[in-house]
Amino acid sequence: MLTFTVRRLVLAVPTLLFISLVIFLLLELAPGDPMAQVPLTVPPEVKEKMREALGLGQPMHVRFLKWLVQFFWVEPQVLFDHLFGTGFAEGKLRVLSWQTRSPVMDIVVQRIPQTLWVVGLSYVVGVLIALPIGIYSAYRQYSIFDQIGTFVSMIGFSVPTFFTGVLLIVIFSVNLGWFPSIYDTTHKVTDWDSFVFQMRQLAMPVFVLALFNAAQISRFMRASMLDNLNQDYVRTARAKGLGERAVVMVHVLRNSMIPVVTVIALGAPQVFAGAIITEQVFKVNGLGHMLIGAIEANDLPTVQTLTFIFALLIVLFNIIADVLYGILDPRIRYD
Q: Residue 333: pLDDT band by 50, 70, 90 thresholds?
């Protein structure tokens, strides 16, 4: 298993380099000009100097290589300096946002807590709800619980999150006044009252995203459980006198989790990418909101850095899912 993990990590390097090149070329070929928002009264020579200040006057390959050095060499040094108080990155040029002229990674670090509070918590809640629902629905197939679970899952998966979010705002914020409609990103938890307020403002966005995540994962869990409940090893275990709880919760569940792990692992990067639509509805100042603002402003360094971070997380969680396969199923061996 260790050899397989190391091999996958090594192979991930050229994969990520290719992904970074594709992202860079797509952004270069995309329509739009960073100078489009500059007032028309600005002289052309001043615009040209502004373009050179942003690095747009350099050849394409030079800008790509410079971004690679900044992201893979300078930014890790900044993190090392922050952790151990060294000065390796002092004076080195980092990936700068064209909007704020500040390092993109500093802004990402500021936005991550808001994204994790809302999207991360909703994903954990969704998984914790989906797994037992999927397991019990498969074990009690076609029962009332299974039919209700199927109906709720279809609604949660079919209804878009922006509609659910607006509907909850109208009912629980406008009409009832139970929860705030706008997420206060400046709020800090210092005592019990502030914690209660944090839970109140988290309630609606977390419910919207948890419903969507739980609907998808519970369907996969149910289908995988049904496929394994009819296998020969289940009948053999029952014939040997093994208890029903042990058959379902140990043998069937462990084998059923293999395809579900893929769904959960590939969905985890979405936590860091942020729920773009939901963050817009509830005004959560997270990474999804940051990406939308960067796209609207043609802030290419920010868009390129964020999209590559999301791609990096997808590759990483793919490796984690492969490793978990071997842990869940002893028949799977990579070495």
A: low
